[in-house]
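If it is no trouble, might I ask you for a protein's amino acid sequence along with its backbone structure tokens?
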Amino acid sequence: MGGSRGAAWANTFQTLVFMVMGVVAFVFISNSLGGMKNATNLAAKIDDSGNVIQTHSFNTKQMKLIENDPPKIIGKVIAEGGNYSNTPLLTRTVTEVELFSKNRKTGEITSFKREYGVPPWMFLTYFFIPLSVGMFPHLFQHWLTAKSAKAFRLTVVAHPLFILVVWVPCVLIGTWATGILPPLDSSKVSGVLGMMVRTLVGNPILTGLLTAGILAAIMSSLDSQFLCLGTIFTNDIVIQIVGKDRFTDKQIILIARLFIVGIVVLTYLLSLVAPQNVFNLAIWCFTGFSGLFPLILAAVYWKRATETGAVACIFTTVISWFYFFAQSGYGGEYTIAGGMMPVAFIVIFSSIAMVTVSLLTRPPSKETLQKFFPN
């Protein structure tokens, strides 16, 4: 109901909740595990016999760490990626392991396969993913509401620092979880933070507040995304088709709100039947945005960029993205040529299309260049 200003305030409040509660969770979990250094040493390891082991357990009744003697075997190596005996799993190259999970109610033991470690090429090509932020429409919309470039000073300085506050605790807690929690398959790893809070914090009130912080993090971008979808639908589709004079401002707002409600309902229904992991779907979404980054870079900085080149860039991104998305099984994990992420190829293809087609078509007029690149 509050429009862009309301979405901005909602984002601010939700992000503050998550940042504060994330730090609180980090401190409590770290203290429960004997400090950061000790907590990191608790991460699951692989011994000389190829067993995945946990050296400690956490007693939830006594709320303290207990050393496993002998170490608890939670899996075994199937395919070794190198000689890395007795080292933390997250420092290894790719190693395929079979993990054992015990059902607490029935006592039944099941097994599943996981890959630990990240191939060098996969790690390097992941750096293309953050380019997606440059193409987020819901960020663009907020930027465009500023009255002056001075409004961006605090954001540009504070954003990297706040990213550290949000992400470093989450990554470390996930690392520590490998040595404390039962083995989890890929469909359940997104719930690790909540599991660690419930296991190690103990206080139900604090657990509730921390869970609220997790939900705030999940929700913090949704309001901006929905607001942006409504704006795009009304301004770029409805008004362009039927004309601006056909509707009043109140009618346009009503159309936007009804469209947003429809999108929310559709998203909810899809979530009930879509089996894909949320993390994998997010990576595919970011991959598509990253593929469009060469377009915005050329539009802002390259005087030789043309409209036809921009269109070619978009179509190249869409076609290549759909191809790789289909190859992945429509939302699964997928790498190419020794572990490279599809985003690297999509960004390269879209860049080539943007540059090549722009050079082959008529350059912008002097009037156009003077408008966007004044002397």
Q: What stands out?
A: Residues 3-32 form the longest helix (30 residues). Strands lie at 45-46, 51-59, 64-79, 95-102, 109-116. The mean pLDDT is 85.
